[in-house]
Amino acid sequence: MCSWLSLGDKGVTLSWEAVAGLSSAIIALCALGFTAWQVRIVRQHNRLSVRPHLTTWSHSDRVNHLYTVSLLNNGIGPALIKSFQIRVDGQAIIGEGTEPIEKALKLLFSQYQYTSSQAYVANGYMMGAKEIHNLVTVRFSGERVPKPEEVEHAWKRGNVIIEYESIYKEKATFNASTRFER
After folding, report:
1. 80 has a pLDDT exceeding 90
2. Residue 132 and residue 144: Cα distance in Å, rounded?
3. Cα-atom radius of gyration of the chain, to the nearest Å?
4. How far apart are CA 133 and CA 68, in angstroms?
5. Are 100 and 106 in contact (CB under 8 A)?
6. Where are the domains of the chain?
7. Given this model, what pLDDT does residue 179 score?
8. Pairwise CA distance, residues 182 & 172, whole Å
9. What does residue 146 show for φ and ψ, rounded to 5 degrees?
10. I want to staple 140 with a disulfide (CB 3.0 to 4.6 A). Which of 25, 144, 145, 168 is the partner?
């Protein structure tokens, strides 16, 4: 018969070596389970610790009739830009480079005289954490300039939609009209 198992008058009994071995196996299984759980938590934390978060910020100098809309990544990880789109009144503005922003400005402010500078982020661009780009700066001039409320209303008619990914390939969409990300 086995040295760790004996049959006695009262049934099966285990030796101390068998109890110690079984206890060691249970402790090892618990340690393995805890390690697997900890690895899962660390992976989740790592994904969160490098998550990008794109948003826009608008600035105005009403005295000089100067308005700027900036794109910033206020997350703590880089954002890989997959697509960049400008819309006015729900319609996509087609063009290359800064052309969609120029066309959008003509639609939004056709009745005013202005000068502008534009920028865009190209597909494949990796926007670093805390990075900021001025997408558009408009300075109105002439005898007739829009009131600040008109400019705000026009900005609301326009929309920037950016699809991007984190370095872990988690997809997100920034939609300036709803400030929605998924």
Report:
1. yes
2. 31
3. 30
4. 10
5. no
6. 5-49, 54-175
7. 47
8. 5
9. -70, 150
10. 145
Nearest Cα residue to 160 out of 77, 74, 100, 95? 100
Residue 94, Cβ density class (10 Å: 0-12 exposed, 13-18 middle, ≥19 buried): exposed
- Tokens matching residue 144: 């007739």
Q: Provide the pLDDT for residue 180.
A: 40
Q: What pLDDT shows up at residue 145?
A: 93
Buried b (16+ CB within 10 A) or exposed e, 9-47: eeeeeeeeeeeeeeeeeeeeeeeeeeeeeeeeeeeeeee
Residue bearing the bigger pLDDT, 16 or 149:
149
The pLDDT of residue 5 is: 53
| Structure tokens belonging to residue 1 | 């018969």
pLDDT > 90: percent of the chain: 65
